[in-house]
Specification:
Elements: H1 4-9, H2 13-16, E1 23-26, H3 32-44, H4 58-67, H5 74-91, E2 99-103, H6 109-112, H7 115-118, E3 122-127, H8 130-143, E4 149-153, E5 171-175, H9 185-199, E6 203-209, H10 214-220, H11 227-233, H12 235-243, E7 252-259, E8 264-271, E9 275-279, E10 282-286, E11 291-298, H13 302-311, E12 316-321, E13 327-333
Parallel strand pairs: 1-4, 2-3, 2-5, 3-4, 5-6
Antiparallel strand pairs: 6-13, 7-8, 8-11, 9-10, 12-13
Length: 334
Protein backbone atom coordinates (compact mmCIF):
# COMPACT_ATOMS: atom_id res chain seq x y z
CA UNK A 1 0.00 0.00 0.00
CA UNK A 2 1.26 3.53 -0.81
CA UNK A 3 2.40 5.34 2.38
CA UNK A 4 0.72 8.77 2.25
CA UNK A 5 2.33 9.95 5.48
CA UNK A 6 5.81 9.15 4.20
CA UNK A 7 5.15 10.93 0.94
CA UNK A 8 3.81 14.00 2.71
CA UNK A 9 6.94 14.18 4.82
CA UNK A 10 9.03 14.74 1.69
CA UNK A 11 6.95 17.67 0.45
CA UNK A 12 7.89 21.30 1.00
CA UNK A 13 5.88 23.56 3.33
CA UNK A 14 4.42 25.32 0.29
CA UNK A 15 3.12 22.02 -1.07
CA UNK A 16 1.81 20.70 2.24
CA UNK A 17 0.17 24.02 3.03
CA UNK A 18 2.16 24.71 6.19
CA UNK A 19 1.32 28.25 7.26
CA UNK A 20 3.94 30.77 8.39
CA UNK A 21 3.91 31.71 12.04
CA UNK A 22 4.50 35.19 13.46
CA UNK A 23 7.53 35.77 15.63
CA UNK A 24 6.88 36.72 19.23
CA UNK A 25 8.92 38.59 21.83
CA UNK A 26 7.78 38.51 25.44
CA UNK A 27 8.94 41.66 27.24
CA UNK A 28 6.13 41.91 29.77
CA UNK A 29 6.78 39.46 32.58
CA UNK A 30 4.34 39.97 35.38
CA UNK A 31 6.02 40.66 38.72
CA UNK A 32 3.24 39.57 41.02
CA UNK A 33 4.77 41.27 44.06
CA UNK A 34 5.15 44.58 42.21
CA UNK A 35 1.61 44.35 40.82
CA UNK A 36 0.20 43.66 44.29
CA UNK A 37 2.15 46.57 45.76
CA UNK A 38 0.92 48.92 43.02
CA UNK A 39 -2.69 47.86 43.36
CA UNK A 40 -2.72 47.94 47.16
CA UNK A 41 -1.23 51.45 47.13
CA UNK A 42 -4.03 52.56 44.83
CA UNK A 43 -6.75 50.87 46.86
CA UNK A 44 -5.47 52.49 50.05
CA UNK A 45 -5.11 56.00 48.57
CA UNK A 46 -7.52 58.66 49.92
CA UNK A 47 -9.25 58.51 46.52
CA UNK A 48 -8.93 54.85 45.65
CA UNK A 49 -7.82 54.16 42.09
CA UNK A 50 -6.38 51.54 39.77
CA UNK A 51 -4.58 51.85 36.44
CA UNK A 52 -6.86 51.31 33.42
CA UNK A 53 -4.46 48.67 32.10
CA UNK A 54 -5.91 46.26 34.67
CA UNK A 55 -9.27 46.42 32.89
CA UNK A 56 -7.75 44.42 30.05
CA UNK A 57 -7.42 40.84 31.18
CA UNK A 58 -8.54 38.23 28.63
CA UNK A 59 -12.24 38.74 29.37
CA UNK A 60 -11.85 42.52 29.62
CA UNK A 61 -10.26 42.63 26.17
CA UNK A 62 -13.21 40.74 24.70
CA UNK A 63 -15.73 42.94 26.49
CA UNK A 64 -14.04 46.01 25.07
CA UNK A 65 -14.40 44.53 21.59
CA UNK A 66 -18.13 44.30 22.28
CA UNK A 67 -18.20 47.92 23.46
CA UNK A 68 -16.89 49.07 20.09
CA UNK A 69 -20.02 47.59 18.47
CA UNK A 70 -22.46 49.51 20.67
CA UNK A 71 -24.60 52.25 19.10
CA UNK A 72 -23.65 54.69 21.87
CA UNK A 73 -19.90 54.14 21.40
CA UNK A 74 -19.19 56.51 18.52
CA UNK A 75 -15.32 56.58 18.57
CA UNK A 76 -14.66 53.29 16.74
CA UNK A 77 -17.04 53.77 13.82
CA UNK A 78 -16.28 57.50 13.55
CA UNK A 79 -12.55 56.85 13.42
CA UNK A 80 -13.14 54.06 10.89
CA UNK A 81 -15.02 56.49 8.65
CA UNK A 82 -12.05 58.85 8.74
CA UNK A 83 -9.63 56.09 7.74
CA UNK A 84 -11.97 54.99 4.95
CA UNK A 85 -12.26 58.51 3.57
CA UNK A 86 -8.61 59.53 3.89
CA UNK A 87 -6.50 56.34 3.83
CA UNK A 88 -4.99 57.27 0.46
CA UNK A 89 -3.92 60.69 1.71
CA UNK A 90 -2.46 59.14 4.85
CA UNK A 91 -0.61 56.50 2.82
CA UNK A 92 1.06 59.24 0.78
CA UNK A 93 2.79 60.46 3.95
CA UNK A 94 4.08 57.03 4.99
CA UNK A 95 7.70 56.27 4.00
CA UNK A 96 8.42 53.38 1.66
CA UNK A 97 9.38 50.08 3.26
CA UNK A 98 7.92 51.17 6.61
CA UNK A 99 7.20 48.93 9.59
CA UNK A 100 3.70 49.43 10.97
CA UNK A 101 3.95 49.29 14.77
CA UNK A 102 0.49 48.78 16.24
CA UNK A 103 0.36 49.98 19.86
CA UNK A 104 -2.34 48.32 21.93
CA UNK A 105 -3.09 46.07 18.98
CA UNK A 106 -5.89 44.07 20.62
CA UNK A 107 -7.48 41.95 17.89
CA UNK A 108 -5.30 43.69 15.23
CA UNK A 109 -8.40 44.47 13.13
CA UNK A 110 -7.88 48.22 12.78
CA UNK A 111 -4.34 47.89 11.48
CA UNK A 112 -5.27 44.97 9.24
CA UNK A 113 -7.97 47.06 7.56
CA UNK A 114 -5.23 49.45 6.41
CA UNK A 115 -2.74 46.91 5.05
CA UNK A 116 -3.98 47.34 1.47
CA UNK A 117 -3.67 51.14 1.55
CA UNK A 118 -0.47 51.42 3.58
CA UNK A 119 1.40 48.41 2.14
CA UNK A 120 3.71 48.00 5.16
CA UNK A 121 6.92 46.01 4.77
CA UNK A 122 6.38 44.52 8.22
CA UNK A 123 3.75 44.49 10.96
CA UNK A 124 4.64 44.67 14.66
CA UNK A 125 1.74 44.21 17.09
CA UNK A 126 2.26 45.40 20.67
CA UNK A 127 -0.11 44.62 23.53
CA UNK A 128 -0.02 43.89 27.27
CA UNK A 129 -2.70 41.19 26.96
CA UNK A 130 -0.25 38.55 25.80
CA UNK A 131 -2.41 35.48 25.19
CA UNK A 132 -5.10 37.53 23.46
CA UNK A 133 -2.41 38.98 21.18
CA UNK A 134 -0.95 35.56 20.37
CA UNK A 135 -4.34 34.31 19.18
CA UNK A 136 -5.14 37.43 17.16
CA UNK A 137 -1.75 37.63 15.48
CA UNK A 138 -1.71 33.94 14.63
CA UNK A 139 -5.04 34.29 12.85
CA UNK A 140 -3.92 37.44 11.04
CA UNK A 141 -0.69 35.83 9.84
CA UNK A 142 -2.71 33.06 8.22
CA UNK A 143 -4.65 35.71 6.29
CA UNK A 144 -1.48 37.55 5.20
CA UNK A 145 1.18 34.85 4.87
CA UNK A 146 3.62 37.00 2.88
CA UNK A 147 3.70 39.87 5.40
CA UNK A 148 6.35 39.40 8.13
CA UNK A 149 4.76 39.82 11.56
CA UNK A 150 6.12 40.22 15.06
CA UNK A 151 4.14 40.19 18.30
CA UNK A 152 5.53 42.05 21.30
CA UNK A 153 4.09 41.35 24.73
CA UNK A 154 4.81 44.67 26.39
CA UNK A 155 3.43 47.30 28.74
CA UNK A 156 4.20 50.48 26.82
CA UNK A 157 2.28 52.74 29.21
CA UNK A 158 5.46 53.46 31.15
CA UNK A 159 8.20 52.85 28.56
CA UNK A 160 8.05 52.69 24.77
CA UNK A 161 11.34 50.91 24.14
CA UNK A 162 10.83 48.53 21.23
CA UNK A 163 12.94 45.36 21.10
CA UNK A 164 15.75 44.97 18.52
CA UNK A 165 13.59 42.40 16.69
CA UNK A 166 11.30 45.27 15.66
CA UNK A 167 14.00 46.41 13.23
CA UNK A 168 15.66 49.71 12.40
CA UNK A 169 12.76 51.54 10.80
CA UNK A 170 11.38 53.56 9.29
CA UNK A 171 8.61 53.00 11.83
CA UNK A 172 5.04 54.20 11.61
CA UNK A 173 3.58 54.01 15.10
CA UNK A 174 -0.16 53.36 14.94
CA UNK A 175 -2.15 54.28 18.04
CA UNK A 176 -5.86 54.39 17.15
CA UNK A 177 -9.02 54.42 19.23
CA UNK A 178 -8.34 57.55 21.30
CA UNK A 179 -6.32 55.52 23.81
CA UNK A 180 -4.10 58.58 24.22
CA UNK A 181 -7.02 59.93 26.25
CA UNK A 182 -6.19 57.51 29.08
CA UNK A 183 -3.10 59.61 29.81
CA UNK A 184 -3.18 62.88 31.72
CA UNK A 185 -1.89 65.79 29.60
CA UNK A 186 1.50 65.54 31.35
CA UNK A 187 1.66 61.79 30.78
CA UNK A 188 0.51 62.24 27.18
CA UNK A 189 3.37 64.63 26.50
CA UNK A 190 5.92 62.16 27.87
CA UNK A 191 4.38 59.33 25.87
CA UNK A 192 4.50 61.40 22.68
CA UNK A 193 8.16 62.23 23.28
CA UNK A 194 8.93 58.53 23.58
CA UNK A 195 6.86 57.83 20.47
CA UNK A 196 8.86 60.35 18.50
CA UNK A 197 12.09 58.62 19.53
CA UNK A 198 10.66 55.28 18.39
CA UNK A 199 9.53 56.53 14.98
CA UNK A 200 13.03 56.22 13.45
CA UNK A 201 12.48 58.18 10.27
CA UNK A 202 8.76 57.57 10.09
CA UNK A 203 5.92 59.07 12.05
CA UNK A 204 2.97 58.63 14.37
CA UNK A 205 -0.63 58.05 13.29
CA UNK A 206 -3.09 58.24 16.17
CA UNK A 207 -6.74 58.77 16.95
CA UNK A 208 -7.91 61.53 19.27
CA UNK A 209 -11.42 61.92 20.66
CA UNK A 210 -12.45 65.55 20.47
CA UNK A 211 -14.35 67.59 23.03
CA UNK A 212 -18.11 67.53 22.52
CA UNK A 213 -21.32 67.98 24.56
CA UNK A 214 -21.87 65.92 27.69
CA UNK A 215 -25.03 64.33 26.26
CA UNK A 216 -22.92 62.68 23.55
CA UNK A 217 -19.99 61.72 25.75
CA UNK A 218 -21.62 60.12 28.75
CA UNK A 219 -23.78 57.47 26.98
CA UNK A 220 -20.65 56.24 25.18
CA UNK A 221 -19.29 55.18 28.58
CA UNK A 222 -22.57 54.11 30.19
CA UNK A 223 -24.53 52.25 27.52
CA UNK A 224 -28.11 51.07 27.90
CA UNK A 225 -27.20 47.42 27.43
CA UNK A 226 -24.69 47.50 30.28
CA UNK A 227 -21.66 46.21 28.39
CA UNK A 228 -19.43 49.02 29.64
CA UNK A 229 -20.66 48.30 33.15
CA UNK A 230 -19.64 44.65 32.74
CA UNK A 231 -16.25 45.75 31.37
CA UNK A 232 -15.64 48.02 34.35
CA UNK A 233 -16.96 45.58 36.98
CA UNK A 234 -14.85 42.78 35.50
CA UNK A 235 -11.94 44.59 37.16
CA UNK A 236 -13.12 43.26 40.53
CA UNK A 237 -12.58 39.53 39.91
CA UNK A 238 -9.31 40.47 38.22
CA UNK A 239 -8.27 42.33 41.39
CA UNK A 240 -9.24 39.29 43.45
CA UNK A 241 -6.96 37.21 41.28
CA UNK A 242 -4.03 39.65 41.39
CA UNK A 243 -4.24 40.81 45.01
CA UNK A 244 -6.12 38.01 46.76
CA UNK A 245 -8.91 40.39 47.72
CA UNK A 246 -12.53 39.47 48.35
CA UNK A 247 -14.45 42.02 46.26
CA UNK A 248 -18.02 40.94 45.54
CA UNK A 249 -19.62 42.04 42.27
CA UNK A 250 -22.98 42.49 44.00
CA UNK A 251 -21.52 45.27 46.17
CA UNK A 252 -20.42 47.54 43.31
CA UNK A 253 -21.96 49.42 40.42
CA UNK A 254 -20.55 51.16 37.38
CA UNK A 255 -20.43 54.97 37.37
CA UNK A 256 -19.31 57.17 34.47
CA UNK A 257 -19.60 60.94 34.04
CA UNK A 258 -17.98 63.88 32.28
CA UNK A 259 -15.72 66.05 34.44
CA UNK A 260 -15.90 69.37 32.61
CA UNK A 261 -13.19 71.03 34.70
CA UNK A 262 -10.68 68.34 33.67
CA UNK A 263 -12.16 67.80 30.18
CA UNK A 264 -12.39 64.06 30.76
CA UNK A 265 -14.80 61.19 31.14
CA UNK A 266 -14.24 59.37 34.43
CA UNK A 267 -15.15 55.75 35.10
CA UNK A 268 -15.53 54.55 38.67
CA UNK A 269 -16.71 51.56 40.62
CA UNK A 270 -19.10 52.79 43.29
CA UNK A 271 -19.96 50.94 46.49
CA UNK A 272 -23.68 50.26 46.71
CA UNK A 273 -23.50 49.77 50.49
CA UNK A 274 -20.89 49.89 53.24
CA UNK A 275 -18.39 47.15 52.47
CA UNK A 276 -15.20 45.82 54.04
CA UNK A 277 -12.70 44.51 51.49
CA UNK A 278 -9.84 42.35 52.72
CA UNK A 279 -6.69 40.99 51.13
CA UNK A 280 -3.60 39.29 52.58
CA UNK A 281 -1.87 41.89 54.71
CA UNK A 282 -4.48 44.62 54.38
CA UNK A 283 -8.08 45.75 54.19
CA UNK A 284 -10.20 48.83 53.55
CA UNK A 285 -13.69 49.89 54.43
CA UNK A 286 -15.60 51.61 51.63
CA UNK A 287 -18.64 53.61 52.63
CA UNK A 288 -21.82 53.56 50.57
CA UNK A 289 -21.26 55.74 47.50
CA UNK A 290 -17.47 55.70 47.82
CA UNK A 291 -15.68 55.13 44.53
CA UNK A 292 -12.63 53.49 42.99
CA UNK A 293 -11.43 55.53 40.00
CA UNK A 294 -10.68 53.01 37.23
CA UNK A 295 -10.20 55.07 34.07
CA UNK A 296 -10.10 58.57 32.66
CA UNK A 297 -10.59 59.48 29.02
CA UNK A 298 -9.47 63.01 28.20
CA UNK A 299 -11.19 64.86 25.37
CA UNK A 300 -9.12 67.33 23.37
CA UNK A 301 -9.60 70.35 21.17
CA UNK A 302 -7.80 69.72 17.89
CA UNK A 303 -5.68 72.87 18.16
CA UNK A 304 -4.58 71.96 21.69
CA UNK A 305 -3.54 68.47 20.65
CA UNK A 306 -1.60 69.80 17.68
CA UNK A 307 0.33 72.03 20.08
CA UNK A 308 1.00 68.99 22.29
CA UNK A 309 2.52 67.13 19.32
CA UNK A 310 4.74 70.10 18.55
CA UNK A 311 5.83 70.29 22.19
CA UNK A 312 6.80 66.61 21.94
CA UNK A 313 9.18 67.48 19.09
CA UNK A 314 7.26 66.39 16.00
CA UNK A 315 8.27 68.59 13.08
CA UNK A 316 5.02 68.57 11.11
CA UNK A 317 1.46 67.49 11.72
CA UNK A 318 -1.70 66.94 9.75
CA UNK A 319 -5.21 66.07 10.92
CA UNK A 320 -8.35 64.61 9.39
CA UNK A 321 -11.76 64.78 11.06
CA UNK A 322 -15.24 63.46 10.41
CA UNK A 323 -17.95 65.76 9.10
CA UNK A 324 -19.29 66.46 12.61
CA UNK A 325 -15.89 67.17 14.11
CA UNK A 326 -16.29 64.49 16.76
CA UNK A 327 -12.98 62.72 16.21
CA UNK A 328 -9.59 63.37 14.64
CA UNK A 329 -6.78 61.25 13.22
CA UNK A 330 -3.41 62.95 13.45
CA UNK A 331 -0.27 62.28 11.45
CA UNK A 332 2.91 63.57 13.09
CA UNK A 333 6.21 63.23 11.25
CA UNK A 334 9.27 62.50 13.35
Amino acid sequence: MFDLSAAAATLSPAVTGTLPQPDFVQLHHEDRAAVRAELMAGLLAPQAFTSPKYLYDALGSRLFEAITELPEYYPTRTEASIFKAHATAMAALIPDNATLVDLGAGNCAKAASLFAAFAPARYVAVDISVEFLRQALGSLQAQHPSLPMLGVGMDFSSSLQLPPQAGNGPNVLFYPGSSIGNFTPVQALEFLRQARSACIGGGLLLGVDLLKPRELLEPAYDDALGVTSAFNRNLLPHLNQLVGSDFLLADWQHAAFFNAAESRIEMHLQAMRDVQVRWPGGERRFGQGERIHTESSYKWRATDFEQLLQSAGFVSTQAWTDERGWFAVFWAAG
